[in-house]
């Protein structure tokens, strides 16, 4: 690096551009995030490298990544840029309604359970907050993928994240369609499920099959059920159960309507399993943006357990 190098205000955009490319390991994805062309972004980073007198990025025809010097530089400027962003975001909403884009990472199931039923009211109450939802049943990296907040089961949240409970404890229920029970006896004990056609869930990230848990405490039972249909989406499993393809174990909140419409019937009600539930999670930051605070407060209150 050149001796007596000092940061000029004009260098900050180039440093931010380098951080974005290094974080994504891609000029294309970084250019999309920054709203510039890849060629302009490449030129910006090259000018910074010439100014510093050191190569920051290793470029090949197939990949981009920081050099050793670039990794050290990234480790220093990354937190500093995050602090600048936090300071700017902390001013959002000062003297006016909260505003700006909020990006949320969550599964289709948690969106259906906690967000969709209340989204229209949130939009009316906070007209200047724009929302982007990334719906995926995989485990998204909130920071690495540019999200402000995510929703996961508590056990799957990294320890360095701040958490806030959402919706209280959740109960898993076992359901089947009247059409299915017209040809199969209703199970009266957990192990009866081993003789039934069960619609199974395969986890997207791990690829493993979900085992069925029933009961609580000393009465807890874990079963490796079998069936002809496997899906990697619980909403699709509900649809398959309504179609009479087998029994399903799903979140109670997903089947309130088909149960009320008698499209599904609950079985083994005394053996339904309960677990702590879902949590918002977000990075620890010195200043929480007003748009994030409003989002968390609204949806936590909207989904507060009754009774």
Entry summary:
With 307 residues, the protein is of the alpha+beta class.
Task: Furnish the topology, listing elements before pairings.
Layout: H1 12-24, H2 27-34, H3 38-52, E1 57-59, E2 64-66, H4 68-89, E3 100-106, H5 108-115, H6 119-125, E4 129-135, E5 149-153, E6 161-166, E7 170-176, H7 178-181, E8 200-201, E9 212-214, E10 221-223, E11 230-231, H8 234-242, E12 248-251, H9 256-260, E13 265-267, E14 273-275, E15 278-283, H10 290-302
Parallel strand pairs: 3-4, 3-5, 8-11
Antiparallel strand pairs: 1-2, 5-15, 6-15, 7-12, 7-13, 7-14, 9-10
Structure description:
The protein is elongated. The model has no long low-confidence stretch (mean pLDDT 87). The longest helix is centred in the N-terminal third of the chain and has 22 residues, at 68-89. The chain is α+β, with helices and mostly antiparallel strands. Helix content is 34%, strand content 21%.
Total of helices? 10
From the N-terminal CA to the C-terminal CA, the straight-line distance is 64 Å
* SSE sequence, one letter per element: HHHEEHEHHEEEEHEEEEHEHEEEH
Query: Which ranges are low-confidence, i.e. pLDDT below 50, for 5 or more consecutive residues?
Result: none
How is the quaternary structure best described?
A: single chain
Give the strand tally.
Answer: 15
**Beta strand %:** 15-25%
Structural class: alpha+beta
**Backbone CA Rg:** 25 Å
Roughly what is the average pLDDT, rounded to an integer?
Answer: 87
Describe the sheet with the most strands.
Answer: 5 strands, mixed
Protein name: LysR family transcriptional regulator
InterPro entries: LysR-type_TF_proteobact-type, LysR_HTH_N, LysR_subst-bd, WH-like_DNA-bd_sf, WH_DNA-bd_sf
Keywords: DNA-binding, Transcription, Transcription regulation
Family: Belongs to the LysR transcriptional regulatory family.
